[in-house]
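Question (not urgent): is this output format expected?
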Amino acid sequence: MVSVDKQLSPSAECAKFVAKVTYADLPKTVVDFVKKDVLDWLGCAIAGSADPSSVPIKKVEQLLGGTPEAQIVSMDRGNLQYAAMCNAYFGHITETDDVDKDSITHPATINIPPALALSEFLKKNGKDLILAITCGFEVMLRIGAAITPEHYQIFHTTSTAGVFGAAMASGKLLGLSEPQLLSALGNAGTTAAGLWQFLDDGAMSKFLHTANAAGNGLLVALLAKNGFTGATQILEGKKGFFAGYARQEPKLEVFTDFGQKWRTALVSFKPYPCCRHIHSAIDAALDVRNKLQGKKIAEATLYTYNTANSVAGKRAPKNEREAKFSLAYCVASALLRGTPSQKDFSQSMVDDPEVKSLESLINVKENNEFSACVPKNWPARLEVITDDGEKITAQVWNPTGDPENSIDWDSLIQKFQLLTEGIITSEGQEKIIKLCRSLDTLESTSSLIGIVNETYKNKPRT
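Got this back:
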């Protein structure tokens, strides 16, 4: 049974923060991070829009999209909700979007799409967009952190906590009052969903999770703008989100430092196109690869934490999606091929006999010390024995892209270029990079996706 401090209303604290915060309140580190994350997310969405997995929602949007109100990556305009849904879906396909350790969520592809759709529709500027995205992040990340790690064992927190963020990002752009924001939160909570069961089948549900959260967040904010009421204690109420979803005592202290601790700037970037829980293991594998100096591996043991093994413990993956959630496959691939890229998850690479042989050799073990570190650290240790008996070990506590091991603008630009190479023109790449770096000075945000579609090599449908 979850008990909640009756002296604190997390729901009210969220609405109060979003209602009162201004752009002038944002630290420079937060503004700079959001600019970077918009570029990072755009790269992910562009790459995702060119992937075959994007086809189902494209076909549905063509059927149900309605009035053309906002731009969709690689497509014509769609209505506000479907623009948010499609762009959120695309942004999660390649598994290269950002991730927050404390909440174990991917905030960009939930919050940026509805904020972009509304900012275009309402003719808002770059500062308005940055502020709205930050509002969504700060609320989503706190709700997710409050119920991590137990909630995450069953629920995809990106979706369940994300819908609250999308509602607040949308609500800020719509100029909702504090009571209206509270209603939007209430209705966001009642639409929260996202279960991990799809992992057993290597299914596509993860993309629907992000689309659903982004679209529903925008929807409930629009409803609140038009007088639709919702629960005022959706988080802490006896029949609310914590009672039904938390699976642990919620950490209510995360709701007491709005405006003091800015969680937005603590989000990590992903250098590799696979589940973030695998990245520390990949970093360790790349270190071991350098130390091997061509020697053959006779034995290999990977030590990881329990959440990583439960989410990304797939063995003998059969396709790209399964491979992206396979610690053993990703480690074997990194040991054999070096730094992972999207091509390492193609069907031919997944079926490669050499990587299959090494993958079967890797013994994955959960380490209690590592499990106790989560979410502060997401560690891994790889130990290998070579065919001549040498033992080589690599230990990683903070994977590349974490705040403790951060990625700079140059690295993010390179990632963006690699993700979008062959999809948009080089001229388009340069224009988008420039726009993101100067996002806080833009009078209009419509050019962000506009330039994507103008320079998309396979022209958007008409």
